[in-house]
Amino acid sequence: MNPNQVHFDAREAEAIVAQYCERTGREVKDEYTAREAVEMLADLGYDVSLNTLREFVAKGYIADHADAWTPVALYALTGALDSRRRWQPTPCVHDARKSAMRLMIEQIRAEGIDPPIHDIDGTTLEDLLLKLVGSDHRGSREALYEAVKVKMDRCGFVEE
């Protein structure tokens, strides 16, 4: 069994996707195209594209549903996006779920400042990771996680 695989109650998934449809003004259907799925979740504040679907399928986070996304598949995709913090930049409905560091980085980026952490180029990825694993404070770990993501982006590491 794939460790990334999670099973959902179909009725619960259908009810939740029906709520998604209500919130986004879409029709409740038995299946959605990949584009419809992406557009619905983007309207719900997720940072998702057709490339995200390809990435998640390739990594085994979700099954490949081609152009037939059932409510269960759509609900599973939502869970995969949430667990990987794939939310749109602030302001976003998911802002309350973001760390203070992430909100700060998003606000700095919105102002056009890059890199959003002024001394990130003077710090190695290894140093950031060592600080991350050595921290007993959740707030510090969250800040270091965001710094690692910035550093990886600066190093050209593309997660796909």
Question: What are the SSEs and their pairings?
Answer:
Layout: H1 10-24, H2 34-43, H3 50-59, H4 71-83, H5 100-110, H6 125-134, H7 138-154
Helix pairs in contact: 1-4, 5-7, 6-7
State the end-to-end distance: 23 Å
Largest sheet entry: none
Helix proportion? 40-55%
Per DSSP E runs of 2 or more residues, the count of β-strands stands at 0
**What overall form do the CA principal axes indicate?**
elongated
Radius of gyration: 18 Å
User: What count of helical segments does DSSP give?
Assistant: 7
- Unreliable spans are none
When the domains are counted, the total is 2
What structural class do the secondary elements suggest? Answer: mainly alpha
Order of helices and strands: HHHHHHH
Can you tell me about this structure?
The protein has 160 residues and is an all-alpha fold. It folds into two domains: 10-83; 99-154, no CATH class. Helices cover 54% and strands 0% of the residues. Helix 1 (10-24) crosses helix 4. The two termini are 23 Å apart.
Summed up:
The chain has 7 helices and no strands. It has helices at 10-24, 34-43, 50-59, 71-83, 100-110, 125-134, 138-154.
Highlighted features:
single chain; 160 residues; 2 domains; 7 helices; 54% helix
